[in-house]
Automatic annotation (TrEMBL):
InterPro entries: Beta-lactam-related, Beta-lactam/transpept-like, Diverse_Enzym_Activities. This is CubicO group peptidase, beta-lactamase class C family. Residues 1-24 form the signal peptide. Pfam families: Beta-lactamase. Residues 58-341 form the Beta-lactamase-related domain. Gene3D superfamilies: DD-peptidase/beta-lactamase superfamily. The lineage of its organism: Bacteria, Pseudomonadati, Pseudomonadota, Alphaproteobacteria, Acetobacterales. Keywords: Signal.
Length: 368
């Protein structure tokens, strides 16, 4: 749930002057950043105070230019397996955890535009004909792909327990002989569309539809359809076994490459002027489907909120992951913030990245 996923040695990396004709995400500081000149020092003050200690990395960009980039060494994990202390930097791969869910939803939108996956309003069980007994259940007849995209399936699911606990629904799913049957046979506890229930079950179903429709594994499809156009050449996607990649939590990227995903949201799905994610899919993604906790709303596998300034509400779109992994995009301000953190399975992991977003970025942002 959001509330659960709610003295650094490395010096701030120098910014790099933008090169004419470079990628739309060229590091560098524009002449007018819209932030105070001492923004970097304000971030450093947060580190010196100890309030930002769990962070592994921060990248803040505006209008395609990196304004701040800061890394810190610390203990890390790879899909739940401790790997000891890591000296993080621009080339270090890091777990996205549940930010993976939002990336998977972008892949679904690309596959949908190619006619390779069911439309959102298609009956969900029709896409899984190997379970005729479940498809015949009248209580499940109204479940559609859209309910998976909005996490409103109406099926029992509980990820409130730690991810080290086998009773956690996602862990139980990963250990089940058949992940898809485990998801689809869960008891119906609410009408589809009526209740938001956070869970990797919905994303696992989307991942299965992508792999079935495209005839390719998630990593292979992601490499061709999303990562290659963005110049992302290094990534990992963890799996329970061959062909069983975790669509919900298995992706690892560098922080700069995660920020590129945020840039796609800022530009309406284009990179260097070429469409990558359909603009209409991003528009649907940013359309609230249901209200959720903490006063936020949820679209198609992305969190939605607003920054209020100058008497107006400026919508943002975000992706959140266990341990404090975060990606925010505020398109009206041309803003992208990407954060890696090591607070895995800690109830207050949301606090540090949210403090940076609200108190360092938004509080110092000049709009207009």
């Amino acid at each position: 749930m959001i509330g659960r996923r709610r003295a650094i040695a490395a010096a701030m990396l120098p910014v790099i002057a933008a090169t004419p004709g470079a990628s739309a995400f060229a590091p560098g500081v524009p002449a007018e950043s819209g932030f105070p000149a001492d923004l970097a020092e304000r971030l450093e003050a947060g580190f010196r105070s100890g309030l930002l200690r769990p962070l592994h990395g921060v990248v803040l960009a505006r209008d395609g230019r990196i304004l701040l980039e800061r890394y810190a060494p610390g203990p890390d994990q790879v899909w739940g397996r401790p790997v000891g202390d890591v000296d993080f930097g621009p080339d270090t791969l890091h777990d996205l955890r549940s930010v993976t869910k939002s990336v998977t939803a972008l892949l679904y939108g690309i596959a949908l535009a190619r006619g390779q996956v069911p439309i959102p309003d298609a009956p969900l069980h029709a896409a899984f004909p190997e379970f005729p007994d479940l498809a015949a259940d009248p209580a499940r007849a109204g479940i559609t792909v859209r309910h998976a995209l909005t996490m409103t399936l109406g099926l029992r699911w509980d990820e409130s327990l730690p991810y080290t606990d086998p009773r956690n629904s996602e862990i139980a799913m990963e250990q089940a002989p058949d992940r898809l049957r485990f998801i689809l046979e869960q008891p119906v506890v609410a009408p589809p569309g009526a209740r938001w229930t956070y869970g990797g079950n919905a994303t696992t179903l989307l991942g299965a539809l992508i792999t079935r429709g495209t005839g390719r594994s998630l990593p292979d499809f992601a490499r061709e359809a999303l990562f290659a156009p963005l110049g992302i050449t290094r990534f990992e996607w963890h799996a329970r076994g061959p062909g069983a990649e975790s669509a919900a939590s298995g992706l690892r990227l560098t922080l700069r490459d995660l920020a590129k995903i945020g840039e796609l949201l800022r530009t309406g799905g284009s990179w260097d002027g070429r469409p990558v994610v359909p603009r209409d899919w991003l528009a649907a993604t940013a359309t609230p489907a249901i209200g959720i906790e903490d006063g936020l709303r949820y679209g198609l596998h992305w969190y939605l909120g607003a920054h209020r300034a100058g008497g107006a509400a400026h919508p943002w779109i975000g992706a959140f992951g266990n341990g404090g992994q975060r990606l925010w995009s505020l398109p009206a301000a041309g803003l992208t913030l990407a954060i890696f953190s090591g607070d895995y399975d800690q109830p207050e992991a949301w606090m540090t990245p949210t403090r940076i977003w609200r108190e360092i970025v938004l509080a110092n942002l000049r709009l207009g």
